[in-house]
């Protein structure tokens, strides 16, 4: 399996943000993160994404969905975090689509003098790719960066599946997603690491910002999580913020949900009218509601490739491929043709042919399409800096040096 060496987190002190004097008094904390591509040459990626998204629109405890192991052609970003005194380092998958932080899946939890066992049992049932975690809830000291330690409720799995080769999950969704994952206390929301950094006075704002970059090899350390502020070296221009959307099926207190419409190409053919969808670090592709997906297939001429499980286009079609525009709150976010294709260097990992050109859009399927219009997963986040702002119930987006880059 692909594993990377632990990299010590580092603290970035904001020194030059004159416009925001608060930021000069309080550090924001940046951690390096690593992108992994665990492919075994068989694609189950769209299936996994579809199942994952089904989980996101439903209460996962009612999910009828079966598991697909994460190491089966899966892609994830992970971060190394120290827990305990003396500390043990754990490699956790970053997930803005769930709220529980837990470990013990691969490397066993090492109890130290800072471990406090609670009377709660943990039972997180994820859908595809993430399996489940059963165990005991502990409180422990989590060291986010040198000198930045918080007390944090963490699950310690005694049995889990689907998370290999990671040690667990760093849950960064709004904390309300954790309600019902413990028992007997099944009514409290567990504060996330971001909430606790803020609540325990370590950061100035209750937010976490994510910088992903397009990747043509893996594993590679090429991302950054920033708690409490934003890292201006990772984006260009200004960050624009959009309020979280509240609908019946995507309550803003559970998801990072926003509203967007989609246009394709210079003729600006609308392929999806304004609808609620989510921004998600844990989805390796970009999901579109079935109607919109079918329109996209029509305008691109793509065909579904069974072997790769992805849409495929010919070199001639790639030459003609036009941009896909996300219109969000009066702003336009462009996905260039290059941003719409799967990194060709990783084709074979997904069961594809070396020289073929695959697209990163997938069909959310009829069931999910009724509940949400899109999932802006990793290919979107690799082109736009994203701020998950709990304190102000909003999502911020900015361009990066990679927004228009030809990389894939
Ligand atoms: C990859 O994993 C899948 C699911 O576990 C399995 O069915 C398949 O045989 C594996 N393929 C290879 C080439 O190992
Ligand atoms: C965990 O939750 C799932 C889904 O609600 C349930 O089917 C399962 O029995 C629970 N497991 C335990 C050990 O409580
Ligand atoms: C772990 O969970 C699986 C699936 O629910 C179950 O079959 C297995 O018996 C469990 N193992 C232990 C040691 O509890
Ligand atoms: C997936 O991980 C399991 C351990 O959880 C391991 O037994 C299995 O061989 C892995 N599969 C692949 C395709 O790497
Ligand atoms: C919490 O547990 C009680 C007792 O088992 C159950 O009636 C209730 O539905 C549960 N609530 C949630 C939110 O899971
Ligand atoms: C579409 O717009 C792009 C720039 O956004 C331009 O490079 C391209 O030539 C245009 N294509 C057509 C067919 O007008
Ligand atoms: C968007 O809404 C308009 C007005 O209801 C409708 O005419 C049009 O067909 C819709 N477009 C798509 C792509 O659904």
UniProtKB/TrEMBL annotation:
The record's SUPFAM superfamilies line, in alphabetical order, gives: Acid proteases
Keyword Signal in annotation: yes
- One Pfam family name is Asp
GO MF: aspartic-type endopeptidase activity
- Where are the active-site residues found? 95, 280
Key word Hydrolase present: yes
The organism's place on the tree of life at top rank:
Eukaryota
Signal sequence interval, chain numbering: 1-19
Q: Name one GO biological process term.
A: proteolysis
Domain Peptidase A1: start-end pairs:
77-398
Q: Which key words are in the record?
A: Aspartyl protease, Hydrolase, Protease, Signal
Query: This protein is called what?
Result: Acid protease
């Amino acid at each position: 399996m692909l594993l990377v060496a632990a990299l010590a987190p580092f603290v970035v002190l904001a020194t030059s943000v004159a416009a925001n004097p608060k930021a000069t008094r309080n550090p924001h904390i940046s951690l390096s993160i690593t992108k992994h591509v665990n492919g075994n040459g068989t694609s189950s990626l769209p299936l996994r994404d579809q199942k994952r998204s089904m989980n996101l629109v439903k209460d996962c405890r009612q999910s009828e969905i079966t598991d697909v192991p994460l190491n089966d052609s899966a892609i994830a970003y992970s971060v190394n975090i120290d827990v305990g005194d003396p500390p043990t380092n754990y490699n956790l998958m970053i997930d803005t689509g769930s709220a529980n932080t837990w470990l013990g899946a691969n490397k066993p939890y090492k109890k130290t003098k800072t471990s406090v066992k609670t009377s709660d049992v943990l039972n997180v049932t994820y859908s595809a790719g993430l399996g489940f975690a059963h165990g005991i809830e502990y409180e422990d000291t989590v060291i986010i960066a040198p000198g930045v330690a918080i007390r944090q409720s963490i699950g310690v799995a005694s049995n889990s599946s689907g998370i290999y080769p990671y040690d667990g999950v760093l849950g960064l969704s709004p904390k309300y997603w954790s309600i019902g994952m413990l028992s007997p206390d099944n009514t409290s929301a567990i504060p996330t690491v971001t909430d606790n950094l803020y609540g325990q006075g370590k950061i100035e704002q209750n937010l976490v910002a994510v910088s992903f970059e397009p990747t043509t090899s893996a594993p590679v350390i090429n991302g950054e999580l920033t708690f409490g502020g934003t890292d201006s070296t990772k984006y260009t221009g200004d960050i624009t913020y959009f309020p979280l959307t509240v609908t019946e099926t995507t309550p803003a207190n559970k998801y990072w949900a926003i509203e967007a419409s989609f246009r394709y190409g210079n003729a600006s053919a609308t392929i999806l009218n304004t609808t609620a969808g989510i921004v998600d670090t844990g989805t390796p592709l970009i999901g579109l509601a079935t109607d919109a997906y079918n329109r996209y297939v029509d305008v691109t001429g793509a065909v579904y490739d069974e072997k790769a499980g992805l849409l495929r286009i010919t070199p001639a079609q790639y030459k003609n491929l036009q941009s896909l525009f996300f219109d969000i709150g009066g702003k336009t976010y462009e996905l260039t043709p290059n941003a719409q294709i799967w990194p060709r260097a990783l084709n074979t990992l997904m069961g594809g042919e070396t020289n073929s050109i695959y697209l990163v859009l997938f069909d959310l399927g009829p069931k999910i399409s009724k509940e949400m219009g899109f999932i802006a997963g990793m290919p979107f986040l690799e082109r736009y800096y994203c701020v998950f702002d709990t304190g102000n119930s909003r999502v911020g987006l900015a361009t990066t040096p990679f927004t228009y880059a030809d990389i894939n």
